[in-house]
Records
---
Amino acid sequence: MRIVVCMKQVYDPATTRISRSREEFDLRGAVKITNTPDKHALEAALRLRAAVGGEVIALSLGDAEADDVCREAIAMGADRALLISGPEVIGVTGRAVARALTAGVRYLDAVDLVLTGQVGLTDGTGSLAPRLAAELGWEVCLDAVRLAPMTDGQIEVTVACSPGVGEIVCLALPAVISVATGSERPRYAHPARIANAWAPGLVEVCSCTRLGLDAAALTADVEVGGLILPPERTRGQTIVGPTETAADELVGLLRTKRIL
Amino acid sequence: MDFTIPKSHQLFRKMVREFATQEIAPRTRQVDRQGWPDMELVHKLGEHGLLGIPFPQEYGGAGLGELGYCILMEEVGAVCTSTAAIIGAHIGIGVMAIYLGGNAEQKRRFLPDLCAGKKLAAFCLTEPNAGSDAAAIQTRAVRDGDRWILSGSKIYITNGPIADVLTVLAVTDPALGARGGVTAFIVEKGMPGLSVGTIEHKLGIRGSATSEIILDEVAVPSANVIGQVGAGFITFMQTLDTGRLGLGAACLGGATTALDMMCRYAAGRMQFGRPLADKQAIQWLIADTATEIEALRALVYRTAWMVDTHQPFTREAAICKLFGSEVASRAINRALQVHGALGYSCAFPLERMWRDARIAEIFEGTNEIQRIVIAEQAMRPYGVRVRP
Amino acid sequence: MGMDLSYLEALMGGVAAEPTTSESAGGVWVVGVEGRLDDGLLRLVGKARVLADALGAYVYLLTNGSDREAAESTIRAGADQVLLAQGSPTLTDLVSFFEPRQPEVILFPRTRVGRILGAGLAQRLDGGLCGHAADLEVDPIYRRIVAHQPVLDDAARQRMTILAAPAMAIVDTAALPAAFNEPWRSGAVADAGADWVPAAEPRPITWPQPAVTLANAAVVVAGGRGLKTVEGFALARQLAQALGGVAGGDLTALDAGWIAEEELIGLTGARIAPKLLLALGLDGDTSLFMSIQDAGLIVAVQPDPAAPIVAAADYNIHADPADFARALLERLSRA
C-alpha cells in the first residue's frame, strides 16, 4: 500500500502571540513546528504500513524551512518525502494548496491512500482532506480514529463524532482520510533515525512548474485581513442580587459563553 | 566560528524534551519517594534508543556523538537528576569504558544490548579505601589460565543493584601500580561470586540505585579484559573525562529549570503590592543565575564539539564538571530562596532538586579532584607537576 | 403562506416579485443536506438573510431535511425560497445542481457532511472558501463576502475576504445569533427537482475514553475553606459532574481532608487551564493564582468582598458558596 501523508509547518500556537495594538499576529519569537495533528496522520500511516506493508511518503508544501517537516517525518518512520517548494507557493491559499498537493499525489503515482491531519494549528480550518478528495475524485472521510484495511480494496474507518462515540464507515480505495487528534498518540522519532534523516536522497524537492501547475492554478481564492479581537478581559466584576437570581444570571452567562 | 547546532541535533533535542516531559517528569516525584528507580522507565529509555546516543550505529547506538549525549543529559537533567544519574552511569562511564578501551569484538558483543537497554551498565572504581585516590584500589585480579579471578569490593556504585554489565578496575600487578599494574574487566551479572552488597540510602538522587558490589573469586574470561592487561587506569581516566562532560550537561539542565522556576515565581508572587520580580534583590539572583547558565552552556557545548572533533579535552571536561555542579547548586539554592517557605516544602520540587544537586559536587571525581586536574593542566607549561 | 408582506422587501431594497427556480441565478444559498432541520440551520438561514439584504439578493435553502410544513419555519427565519430534495447528495450531485444556477454565495453548516461537501464543492466550482467561519459580513464597496475565521482556539478571529466566486463558507452555526422567527416573512417552497440516493446507515460504535484530569478538564469546580464541611465540598463534586467537569481544591481543602493529593490545585499540585473555573469559597493565594493563569472564565463565589480571589475572578458572586451551589445545581438539573 502506498500511503501519502500531507504534513505542514505551522507556527507553534504556544509561541504565537496576538498584538492588540496592530490587530495582527505577533510572530516575534514564534517557533515553526510540524503541525501536530499531521503527526497523528503519520502515526496512523505507520501503523497501517506495519499491518499491510508498503510505503509511507510525507508530502509537504512550503518554503525551504518546510524541509524540517519532511526530515521529522522520516525520523518518525516515513520512507521518504516530497516537498513542493519554490517562490510561487509562498502564501498560497487553500484552493491552490489542494491543487499543488493533488499534483504532488499524482506525481508520486499509484497512491492508495492520502492521510491528512484533522486541522492546522493556529489558523487551520480542516478543509484540506475534502478539497483533495474533490480534486482527485476520490472518496473522503473525516476525523478517523482508527483505520483497518480490508481485502477487497476497501478500508474500514472508525470516525469520531464526539469523545468515545463514533461510527464505522467503509471507503473504497483510493481515498483521502483526515485523522482525528483523538487517535493514537504519535510516536517519538527514533534517535538513530534522527541522525540519518538528513542523508541525501530522502527528500525530493519539486517546483510547481515541474508538477505541471501554472500560475493561474495557484491564484488566491481568499485574502487574509486583520484580526478581530474580543474585548479585553475585565476582572473583578460582580453579579449582584440574592443567591437565586445570581444563579439564574450565571446560567445565562454560561449559555452566552457557550459553556453550557 | 559557527555555533550552529546541526539540524539533526536540534530535532533530537525536541524529541528528548518531549520524551522527558511526557515520560520522565511525571515519575520524578515518585522515584524520589520510593528511593528506587522505575525500571519500566529505564526500559522505555532503551526502547526509544536513548541508552546508546553517543555510540556509532554499527554498535547499535544512535550515532549522535558527544553533542547528542550532552543534549540528552541536559534535557533529562532538567526534569529528573536521578534518571540523569542512571543514564550517566550507564552511557557516560559504564558503556563508555568498553567503547573507549575495548576491542572491536567486545564492542560487537556488548554494545548492541547495552545501547538497546536490554542490559544496563555500571562503572566500578571506588572502593572502601580508594576513591579520589583511584590508584590505591585493592581489588585483585589473578591470572588463572585463560581467565582471571577477581576478588574485592566496590562501593557507592551507581546502577550497582540493577546493572547487568559492570566495568571493574582491578590490580593485576601490584608491583607496577597505576602505570601498567591495573586492568579493566567486563564482569557480567550471573558470574559466580558476583553479588550486590549494602544498598545505600542517599540524601539525593534517591530515584537511582547505588550499592556495594562484592567480587568473591569471580572468574572472568580473558576475552573480558578491556583493551590490554595493565591499561585499565588510562581507560578509566579517559572514561571519566567524557563522564564529567555529561555530568556538566545534566547540571546545565537542572540550573535552567531552577532559573525558569525562579522567574515564573518572581513574576507571579506579589509582595508589598508588587511582583517579587520588581525587587532588585531578586533581579540580581536572576541575573547572576542567567549569566552563569549562559557561561556553562557555552562551555558544555564547546567541550562536546572538542570531543566530537577528536581534540584533547581533559581540562575542559574537568572545568565543565566543576563549574557545572557549582552553577547548578547555586541556581537551585537561589531558586529555593526566591520561593521562600514554599521552596522548603516537601510538596514542592525544589527541595528534591536541592538535595539532588549536591551529588554533582561529589561523584565522578569530587570537585577538589577536578581542581587538581585543572591546576595540573594549568601548571604544566610552567614546569610544575601538580600532585594530589 | 400567510399574508403577503412582500412590500416590506421592496422597502428594504429587494425586488418585490417572488423568485422562481428558473430565474434564480445568483442569490445566497444555504445547503443543509443532513436529513434534518435543526436550530443551527435556522441560524445559518438568518445569517444568509443578513448577507442577502446587504447584497440585495434572495436567500435560498436547499434541504433534504424538511417537508412543506416544516419549511415554513425556515421562511420565518429568513429564507425566500426553500428547495426540498430527497436522499443524500454526493459531491457530483451538488456540482450538477449548482453549476447552472451560478450562486453568488453558498453557506454550509460546519457539520461533518457540511465540511466534506462545502470544501469539495468550493474546489469543484472554483470558488473561494473560508473553511471555518464564525461570522460573515459583506464588504459593500467590492461586493465581497468577508468571513471571520477563529484562530488560536478562538482567541481572535481573522478577516478572510473571499475573492473567487462563488463565495463559500463553512459556518460554525453555534457561534451565530439566535434564529429569526418573523411570521410576516413570505417565501416559496418548491421541489428541488433532485432525487438523490439515500445515504448508507453508518454503524455506531463506542470506545472507552481516558478519564478527564484536572490538567485537561474544560470545566473545573474548585472548593476551599468557604464550603465549611465535607458535605459542603460534596456540592462542588456534584456541580462538577453536572457541568461535565472535574472537582479540585486548594490547600485548605487538602488539609481538611476533603480532597486527595491529586485533586490539589496549586504550585504543589495541578496547574489547570479550563474554559470555566468555578471557585467556591476559595480565598486565593499566590500558589493558586499561578496555577490558574491559563483559565478562561473565572467565576468566584465568595462572601468576603475583600478576599484576594475577587480581583482575579472575572465575575464574583457574594453569597454563601454552599447555598449558591445548591441553587445552581437545582437550575442545572431543571435545564
Note: The radius of gyration of chain C is 25 Å.
---
Amino acid sequence: MTRGTVARTLMYLSLILATLVVLLPLAVVLLTSLKSPKEMANGSGALALPDDPLNLDNYVTAFRDGQMLSAFGNTAVILVVAVGGTILIGSMTAYAIDRFHFRFRKLVVALFLLAALVPGVTTQVATFQIVNSFGMFDSLWAPIALYMGTDIVSIYIFLQFIRSIPVSLDEAARLDGAGAFTVYRKVIFPLLKPAIATVVIVKGINVYNDFYIPFLYMPSEDLGVISTSLFRFKGPFGAHWETISAGAVLVILPTLLVFLFLQRFIYNGFMRGATK
Amino acid sequence: MTDNTRKAARPAIPAAPAGPERAAPAPRRIRLSRGLTPWLFLVAPLALLLTFTYAPIANMAAYSFTDWDGVSPELNWTGTGNYTELLTRSELFEVFFVSGYYLAASAVQIVLALYFATALSFDVRFRNFFKGVLFFPYLINGVAIGFVFLYFFQDGGTLDSVLGLLGIRTDHAWLGTPFSANTSLAGVSVWRYLGLNFVLFLGAIQSVPGELYEAAEIDGASRWHQFRHIIVPGIRPVLSLSVILSVSGSLSVFEIPYIMTGGATGTETFVIQTVKLAFQFNKTGLASAAAVVLLLIVLAVTWVQRRIVPDEKVDLV
C-alpha cells in the first residue's frame, strides 16, 4: 500500500518534471517576445516577467521587417496546392493498385515500396539538377512538385483505407454503366473522406514545418516560407532576441491552435502515417 | 445484395445488341480498356515517382564517378576517385562520429518514451493534458525550435537562469565545445522527437485488450510483470519500427544543428557536410559519392532490421 503510494507520487513527479522541461523553454520565449529592447539590455534575466504583458511591438517588427506576412502567404499557397495534389495522386495510385489486376502490378507496387526507404535528404544533390533543368528552381513550383511527387506515406494511408471499401460497391456502380473514372470519382473518392482528413493533417503539418526543401530551392527573399523567413531573422535581428522570439511565437501559434482543436485526428493521423 | 443486382442486370445486356455476332468482340474491348485504365490512373504518380525519386538516384550514382562541379558543361570520369577521397580524407569521414551522439540520444529517447507511454496507459489524472504536452514539441516548426533552444543555451539564457534559481552559478558555454555542443543538440533532438515515439507506443499499448491486464491483476502480477509480459510483446512491431527510424534519423540529422550552429564547433553532420560540398563548394561529384554512401548505409540498416524482425505488416503485394 505505502509502496504503491510512493510509486504513484514518483510517477506524478516525473510527469510534472517532463511538463516543465517541455513548457519552460517555450514559456521563456513567449516572455521574451513581450519585452522591450531596454528590458533586454538591463539584464534582469531570462525568467523575469515583462514590464508590460501586452507589449506587442516586437510582433509588429517581426511582421513588418521580417516579411512574415508574405511568408504565411507563400506557405498557404504551397500547402493548398501540394496537399490537394497529394490527395489526388495518392488516391489515384491506391485505386489503381488495389482495384485492378494488370501486368507489372507487382513491379509498380515494389517501386513505390522501395521509394519509401530512400530518405529524401540523401538524394537532393541530384534532385536539385532535375528541378533546375525544369526551370522550377527558385519558384513555388519546386517545393510543390517535390511534396507531391515524393510522398509515399499518403499512398499507404489511402491504400489501407481503400481496401476496407467493399468491391461490391464498385461492381454495383459499374453495372449501372459507370466507367472506371466515374467509379473513382463518384464512389471511391467520397468514401475516402477519413483518409483524406488524415493526409491533410499529416501532410499539412509536414509542409508547414519543412525547412530543407524551401531552403535549398527558393533562395529569393520574396519566396520565403515561414521556415526560411524565420531562419533569416538570424541575420538582421542577430542579437535582438525579443524580435526573434516574437517571430518564433508567431510560427508556433497556428500549430498550437490546430493541435488544440484537432487533437484526436492528429494523434490518429500520425499513428497511421508512421506505422502504415 | 450484390448477387441480386447482378442477376437483375444480366438479362438486360443481351437484349440491347442485335445478335451473337456483335456480342463476341465486346468482352475483348472491355478487357483491352481494362488493361489500359489502371495505367491512366498511374501515369501522373509514376511520372512523379520516376522523376523525383528514381532519376535522382540514378543520376547521383553516375555523378559520383565524376568530378562534376554542378554547373559547367564538362565533366571528367574519375572512376572511384571520389569514394577513395571520402574514405581517406579523415575529416570527411569524421562527421559520422557526430551521429553517435544522436544515436545515443535516440536510445534515451526510446526508453523515456516507453516509460511515459507505460505510465500514461494506467489510470492517471490529467492524462490528456500530459499526453498533449509530451506530444506537442513534435509538431513545432524546426526553425522555431532551433531559436527557442539557441536562447535556452545562450549565455544568461533560460538554462543558466534556471540553474541560477537552483543556486548553481555557471558560465559554461553550452554550445562552446564539441562535446558539450553535440550533447546539447542531441538533447534538443530528444525534446523534439520524443512525442512521436511516445504516442506510437501509447497507441500500441492501448490496442492490447483490457481483459489481459485484468486477468494479470487477478493472478497477482505486479506492474513490472505486466510491463514485461503484456506490454513489451504487444508493442514489439512499433518498437522495431522506432529503432530503425532512429538509426536512419541519426545518420541523416540536418535541421537542428544547421539552424543552431551551422555546423560549427564540431557539430557538422553528414548531411550538412554533403549540402555544403554540393551547394557551397560546387563539388557535386564528391557530394554525390557521399550521398550514395549514406543511402547504402540506410538501406543496409533497414535490410538488417527486416531480417531480424520480419515485419508482418508489409502485405502490400
Note: Residues 216 and 222 of chain B are 8 Å apart (CA to CA).
